[in-house]
Every structure is written in structure tokens, then in C-alpha cells.
UniProtKB/TrEMBL annotation:
Residues 1-20 are annotated as: Disordered. CDD domains: Bbox2 (cd19756). The keyword rRNA-binding does not apply. This is Protein RGF1 INDUCIBLE TRANSCRIPTION FACTOR 1-like. Residues 40-79 form the B box-type domain. Residues 7-18 have a biased composition (Basic and acidic residues). Keywords: Metal-binding, Zinc, Zinc-finger. InterPro entries: Znf_B-box. It comes from the Eukaryota.
Amino acid sequence: MSSTSRLVKDEQVEKDQVQQRNQQPEWLQAFLERTFFDTCVAHPIRRNELNKYCINCNASACQYCMSSGAHRHHRVLKIYRHVYKDVVSLGSMEKYIDCSQIQVC
């Protein structure tokens, strides 16, 4: 293999890696449009809020929904409320998406 063709191949591999990092997973947009912290209809217990998100099912859920077994082997994010905003820990998101360009304070 000549050095020119090797260089072109390396450039293509690097370009593919950049595109792959910039692509959003299918579930991300649906997750960003979700609302959380409503009361769970299936488990109307006092202070039981929808504070988890099942990536596999694209569903908000409470702690009882998650422990019921239907989501046992699913990918789940825990949502926190911070200054009236719904947030997810960076460590949790890093498991599912590339967060290398996210700046934290």
C-alpha cells in the first residue's frame, strides 16, 4: 500500500470517527422532550414521582415501576431536580453518549 493511499484511508477513518461522535442516538431527542416529576399514575403514592427514564422503552417511570421487573435489564437514567431544572449526572450520560465536548464547572 502506498503512503498516499494509506494517508487517504487514515483521513477517512478519522472523518468517520468524528461523524460517529457527532451523531445523536435515536432516543436522545425523545428524552429531551420528556417531562418528569409528575405523579405516577400506576403507583399513586405520596411523593412518588416520575424521576427515571427507561431508554429502551422511551418512558418516564417511578421507582416502583423500575423495580417491578419490566425494566430489569434496560438502560435507565435517574433524573434529578436542581433549581427547578431536570438534570442527569454526567457520569450516567457518559455510559450512553459521548460527553467529551460537555464543559462542567
